[in-house]
Design goal:
With 519 residues, the protein is an all-alpha fold. It contains 19 helices and no strands.
Length: 519
């Protein structure tokens, strides 16, 4: 049995591609890599080869393979390793985005601060913790309100917001850089640095490992695969278009920023706006600075909106299949996951209050970014491992989009993706030397404790699940895993009232064949 949970609203290839760029690309990350000068190109290309490209290709095969079934990464990982691992994967995808919101919204607050014409005052306002906190919460809750209106609103605002606030400013930044060089502007980038970085300085690699977070998100659109016409063909096409646009924006945008600001003066949260200000002053067009600040703020809203609507929708669908308590299964009249969005908002508000204890906005920004990277990379390692495993567990399943004729190419691409993710995961624990993050004890404590707690939560929820959690309405039908359709013995056991690990939520349900835990 397959499940079509479409709202009737269909996303075009370009709309989905731009939603990908909007979700993945954030110009806020450019200053972190501009610090590295010419070697930043190495990091971008390296991360693209070992992470972005494997993610896009593997996600394309998995999404097309399960284009008629709900669940996103829950489906992909669950089919390979069982529902416990699948639930862990989609929970990590959801919670990491929740932790990520304050960091990207901090950039939104900086953009608003730079709407003024006095750069000194703007920089001071952008460093004000209370101002930043107020703006972060205001933008986030506005995005939540829009998300409650349904996918139609989200798709339109994400598309146009992404164009106005990400793609156009990125193209403008690149054009300004080229104009600056062509007219004799001074190159502030340290060109003595080699394309090949010094890989022996591990603490200098921490910010570079953050590129993996910049590239994260391509798989997230798998949650919307059922909202696309002819998904087996159009979803992979949208992924490929989005990937090419993403790499071009990051590499060229970082170089453009490095041209106008010396590396020693780069600030992670403010330098993008300062860079635009400097370019406009050079061209005697300072009036444009507030305009670009407003545009960047719109881009932040569009990016957050894409993420608010994505992972929360995926975990909502999974929750209705019996993996979350009924409270988290409540929706509004538009069919939007109301309670999950409200809980998500409460968590964002709580994390935003960390401004009070962190020594600076920069340190707050960095430690939450690193925690986000760690959690997301765990999910990616599960996804890559699942893709390889499914080549053997479901070797005869239809794959409308397939990597290679045999399994060698999948082993190569998913293997590289897994190894790259593991490398970035390890590096992300090292405090960066470029930023004052406060006590190293606090740094390690937040990252290690955060990872342990967040990974434990879904495992505890899974262990506590009850048959009564499953929503038995027709709209909650969730296609069974492949082994559930092939295990009549498990059905006989469940009919006697016994419960297998993965079949608890479906006991005595005639619309699904029971399951056995494959872990």
């Amino acid at each position: 049995m397959s499940t079509k949970a479409s709202t009737g609203f269909k996303l075009s290839v370009m709309t989905l591609a731009i939603m990908n760029v909007t979700a993945v690309v954030s110009l806020r990350g450019l200053p972190a890599e501009a610090i590295y000068g010419p070697s930043s190109a190495f990091y971008y290309l390296f991360a693209a080869i070992v992470f972005l490209i494997p993610t896009a290709l593997v996600a394309a095969e998995l999404a097309a393979m399960f284009s008629d079934k709900q669940g996103g990464v829950f489906r992909w990982v669950g089919e390979a390793f069982g529902p416990r691992s699948g639930f862990l994967a989609i929970f990590l995808q959801w919670i990491e985005s929740t932790i990520w919101y304050p960091t990207v919204l901090t950039f939104g607050a900086v953009a608003i601060a730079f709407i003024g014409m006095d750069q000194t005052y703007d920089m001071s306002l952008a460093s004000n913790k209370m101002f930043t906190l107020a703006v972060v919460l205001a933008i986030y809750w506005l995005a939540t309100f829009i998300s409650l209106k349904g996918l139609g609103w989200v798709g339109k605002i994400s598309k146009w917001g992404g164009m106005i606030g990400t793609i156009i400013p990125a193209a403008l930044l690149i054009a300004l850089g080229l104009t600056y060089l062509a007219t004799g502007g001074h190159n502030n980038m340290d060109m003595s640095q080699s394309f090949w970085p010094d890989l022996t300085e591990l603490d200098n690699l921490v910010l570079a490992s953050g590129i993996f977070l910049f590239y994260a998100g391509m798989e997230m659109m798998g949650i919307h695969v059922m909202e696309v016409n002819n998904p087996a063909k159009n979803y992979p096409k949208a992924i490929i278009i989005g990937s090419l646009m993403t790499v071009a924006i990051f590499v060229l945008g970082t170089f453009s920023l490095g041209l106008i600001i010396p590396a020693k003066e780069i600030n992670l949260t403010q330098s993008l706006l300062i860079g635009f200000d400097n370019y406009f002053k050079y061209l005697h067009a300072s009036w444009a600075s507030p305009v670009i600040a407003v545009a960047l703020m719109v881009g932040v809203l569009a990016g957050v909106l894409t993420w608010v609507a994505g992972p929360s929708k995926g975990i909502y669908a999974v929750g209705k299949a019996g993996y979350l308590p009924p409270f988290f299964q409540k929706s509004n009249t538009n069919g939007v996951q109301r309670n999950i969005l409200l809980v998500q908002g409460s968590i964002v508000t709580l994390f935003s209050l960390l401004f009070v204890v962190m020594p600076s906005v920069q340190s707050f920004y960095q430690i939450l970014s690193q925690l986000t990277v760690l959690l997301y990379l765990i999910m990616y390692m599960l996804m890559f491992a699942a893709a390889i495993t499914l080549r053997y567990k479901m070797k005869d399943a239809a794959r409308p989009f397939r990597l290679g004729r045999g399994n060698a190419l999948m082993w190569l691409i998913a293997g590289v993706g897994f190894a790259g993710s593991l490398l970035a995961f390890t590096l992300s624990f090292i405090p960066p030397s470029q930023i004052a993050t406060g006590s190293h004890t606090v740094w390690y404590g937040v990252l290690v404790t955060g990872c342990v707690i967040v990974v434990a939560i879904p495992l505890i929820i899974y262990a506590m699940r009850k048959p009564s959690w499953r929503d038995r309405s027709a709209t909650a039908d969730f296609a069974p895993f492949h082994w559930e359709q092939q295990s009549p013995a498990a059905a006989h056991i469940l009919q006697k009232g016994q419960t297998t690990d993965s079949g608890t939520a479906r006991k005595n349900d005639s619309t699904h064949k029971p399951s056995t835990d494959k872990q």
